[in-house]
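Project standup — Tuesday

K.O.: blocked on the structure for the chain from last sprint. Re-posting the sequence here as requested.
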Amino acid sequence: MKIVSLDPRVTRSNIDENTQEGVLHEKEHFQTYEVFEQKKRGTHHIHAGSVHAPSADLALVFAKEQYSRRGQCVNLWVVKTADIAATDYDDADIFETTSSKLYREPDAYKVMDRINAFKERQKSN
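H.V.: unblocked you, prediction finished:
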């Protein structure tokens, strides 16, 4: 029995279920690239979606055709999905401010009473 897959390349290869011959190797698969687009100069790039391509150059071409053909776009970035590193939700403590650096937070400065006292002194003068 032949393997039938959603990937047409696998189906066209006529691979027998019991053999490893003709199996697509890692280098033969298209890589996934994340696409970021910039609508106007000076604005942030925003994630638009993803494309599958054999190289970064073709990923740019595919991204242009997929995400910028109807709308205005001035710049595109493509990044291999495998190259994106992200923090784990379990590591949320790395975003907490240490108690020795509270001066970086606006809550650490309690000066409203001083400002109000200064305003009162200015009114009396």
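K.O.: great, moving the ticket to review. The radius of gyration is 28 Å. The chain is about 25% helix and 20% strand.
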